Hints:
- The structure is a homodimer of 149-residue chains.
- With 149 residues, chain A is mainly α.
- Chain A has seven helices and two strands, in the order H-H-H-E-E-H-H-H-H.
- In chain A, strands 1-2 form a two-stranded antiparallel sheet.
- The longest helix of chain A has 17 residues, at 106-122.
- Chain A binds a DNA duplex (30 and 30 nucleotides) through helix 1 and helix 3.
Amino acid sequence: xxxxxxGRYAVTAVLDLAFHQGKGPVSLAxxxxxxxxxxxxxxxxxxxxxxxxxxxxxxxxxxxxxLQRNAAEISVSxxxxxxxxxxxxxxxxxxDACDGDYQCLTHDLWQELSNEIREFLDGISLxxxxxxxxxxxxxIRQDAVSASA
Amino acid sequence: xxxxxxGRYAVTAVLDLAFHQGKGPVSLAxxxxxxxxxxxxxxxxxxxxxxxxxxxxxxxxxxxxxLQRNAAEISVSxxxxxxxxxxxxxxxxxxDACDGDYQCLTHDLWQELSNEIREFLDGISLxxxxxxxxxxxxxIRQDAVSASA
DNA sequence: CTTAATCCCGACTATTTTAGTCAAGTATTA
DNA sequence: TAATACTTGACTAAAATAGTCGGGATTAAG
Lengths: 149, 149
């Protein structure tokens, strides 16, 4: 499990999607403007999110992305794992370095903690984040600015 | 809050230190051998850990590093934050991009979740990780291999 | 049917971070 | 004093991040 700015972008974008999908699919252009993430970068992220069945797409004018499941059934870890796909940890990850059998066990030591973190994030759904008072306030403020622009 | 391989190395190294500091300070060379992390990289990490008052150093023969506080009083987040020091998040982090005042609020949205994660990791002390059964087993196995080598 | 909005895809790139190496110190103890 | 071990700084190869660019494919609307 990793927490990087990439995952942060993804969580923020999907959160924006969740807030605005009331009136049909949400375009990446709209998310890009509201969240200030470059369109091309969003395209890369959403390609992975689509491959991992978190969002689905509708093409053509008026199209965009929708959540594939209910916001209550999408966890924060789902999003982060989808976007971080190929995590080949450096060091003695896969049975080749440190010549011996169990000489180097960095991986195992960290794994325990990593699991706890994943379980924790697995327990937080998009819907729960959306009910957070501060998050709600920010979302409302963003809509106000977008509308006046 | 970020979770990267750098933080993982740091947590693993300090954990190794905690397990072996019974007989005085632990040398980086010993940690390097046991955990298979390059000595020079450990030097960089421990310089930051020392600056953040997590470990203290003893010079000269038989020297090495010791925990500055009790293992129960060092949280996992302490270690990760010490090592990740300068986290200048990309994007609209600091009031310059997106011209307006509150146009871009990516930062705030993510912040809420990030805080929850930090609080979670803040609640996990080194001592607690050490009592984890699997972690203990790995540590014992490592000592056995080190001794026979 | 054409046009425009939108997703889709691949190649390319600048910058930053990771994970080191190397060399020259300084402090301490045996 | 010599060996041990920490300390610092400069440098570097490789990867990840955060994009850009340019072209498609689909489809709703006019």
